[in-house]
Write a structure and sequence with these properties.
By secondary structure, the chain is of the alpha/beta class. Helix content is 34%, strand content 18%. It has one domain: 3-Layer(aba) Sandwich (Oxidized Rhodanese, domain 1).
């Protein structure tokens, strides 16, 4: 009876807007992973808060060894094309729940969502 009054986050879809991911994060849903496949310098400069860096070149191998195939994964790259390629790689090795973040980091920043940066040690 009360569940109809409690908003729930949207389900994972093959292509997701940044709003969909942010809603899930705000909901407090821990069963998802955000993957950034851009180069390490770009990742260190700025990335979606909570994202992990996994190089595009060996993405499938690294993720296979760390995540279950039914894990919800949100992925983004340098462009929507790179994002789509990365998502395809993961789907081809058996990941069932992979969402491409449309617009990637730029879309995330455009609406003012939190980002992180890794400072260079001098």
């Amino acid at each position: 009876m009360f569940s109809r009054f409690i908003p729930t986050p949207p389900p994972l879809t093959a292509k997701s807007r940044v709003y969909d991911l942010k809603t899930r994060l705000d909901w407090g849903e821990p069963a998802l992973t955000i993957i950034d496949v851009r180069d390490l310098n770009s990742f260190n400069h700025c990335h979606i808060q909570g994202a992990i860096h996994t190089p595009f070149e060996n993405l499938a191998e690294q993720i296979l060894s760390h995540l279950e195939l039914n894990r919800d994964i949100y992925i983004y790259g340098e462009s929507d094309e790179q994002t789509a390629e990365a998502a395809t790689k993961l789907r081809e090795v058996g990941f069932k729940k992979v969402a491409e973040i449309i617009g990637g980091l730029a879309a995330w920043q455009a609406v003012g969502y939190p980002v992180e940066a890794i400072s260079a040690v001098v």
